[in-house]
Amino acid sequence: MLPKVLICLTNGVEDIEAVTIIDLLNRAKITTISTNVTNTDTLIITCAYGTKIIVDVTLSKIITKEFDALILPGGLEASKTYRDNELVINKIKELRDAKKIVGALCASPAIVIAYHNLYPDANMTCYPQLNHKINNNKFIESPICYDEKAKLLTGQGPGTTIEFSLKLIELLSNKKIAQKIASQLILPINIINNT
């Protein structure tokens, strides 16, 4: 069965992060379900820089479904919305407790993961100007960081989204598929070895 990934989205999400993650996972034949995490029935969200995305479903309609991974693309406004949404936080805890992958980019590791102390022993990275919100001995200065024990994947921001997505593909499928996607994008093969 193909891996299934829940991509949490909301108004103010970082455009590049939202679109790139969905695109690359789809190229790898990984099932993506995008969701608007606000408590509305609207399926249209407006990203931080104006890109409009039609999500697959609202969170309330799929909250009880099982996923192999949950991803929080960043953007400060979006990260605050995730942080304040009890359904999102409970879903993260559910995946964490089931030893499944949770990924967070940009502001989300600091604003959501660290704020709620969801992974107190995990190493992580985040948008550099927010690193003070992460426990000093757990912050890793790196474009992406995967804490294998916690199954937590984090990235610094829009410029690291491809590397983040390729690592996610490697974790959910395998390294060969991640390398194939990197090759399709005309990226150096060693981008996979650096993650």
From TrEMBL:
<dbReference type="GO" id="GO:0005737">
    <property type="term" value="C:cytoplasm"/>
</dbReference>
<dbReference type="InterPro" id="IPR006287">
    <property type="entry name" value="DJ-1"/>
</dbReference>
<dbReference type="InterPro" id="IPR050325">
    <property type="entry name" value="Prot/Nucl_acid_deglycase"/>
</dbReference>
<protein>
    <submittedName>
        <fullName>DJ-1/PfpI family protein</fullName>
    </submittedName>
</protein>
<dbReference type="InterPro" id="IPR029062">
    <property type="entry name" value="Class_I_gatase-like"/>
</dbReference>
<dbReference type="InterPro" id="IPR002818">
    <property type="entry name" value="DJ-1/PfpI"/>
</dbReference>
<feature type="domain" description="DJ-1/PfpI">
    <location>
        <begin position="4"/>
        <end position="170"/>
    </location>
</feature>
<dbReference type="Pfam" id="PF01965">
    <property type="entry name" value="DJ-1_PfpI"/>
</dbReference>
